[in-house]
C-alpha cells in the first residue's frame, strides 16, 4: 500500500509506517512542501499502484 504524506504528518509516524512495510511517499524536503491541501489531494491521486 502506498501512503502519501505531507509535512504535517510527524516524521516518527512516517518512520513507523515504513518500518511496518508500507511504501510512504513523503513530500517533506521537496519542492511540493507547503502546497495547499487540494493540490496534495491531486498529487496523491496521481500515484499509480501496480
Describe the structure.
The chain is built from two helices and two strands; from the N terminus they run E-H-E-H. With 50 residues, it is α+β, with helices and mostly antiparallel strands. The protein has one domain.
Percentage of residues in helical conformation: 25-40%
Low-pLDDT parts are none
What is the molecular shape?
globular
Structural domain tally: 1
Topology as a string of helices (H) and strands (E): EHEH
Order of strands in the sheet with the most strands? 1-2
**Overall pLDDT confidence:** 89
Please indicate the percent range of residues in DSSP E strands (runs of 2 or more).
15-25%
Number of helices: 2
Number of beta strands: 2
First and last CA, distance:
10 Å
> What about the largest sheet?
2 strands, parallel
Keywords:
50 residues, alpha+beta, two-stranded parallel ribbon, 2 helices, globular
What is this structure, in a nutshell?
The protein has 50 residues and is an alpha+beta fold. It has helices at residues 11-19, 37-46, and strands at residues 2-5, 23-26.
What's the topology here?
Elements: E1 2-5, H1 11-19, E2 23-26, H2 37-46
Parallel strand pairs: 1-2
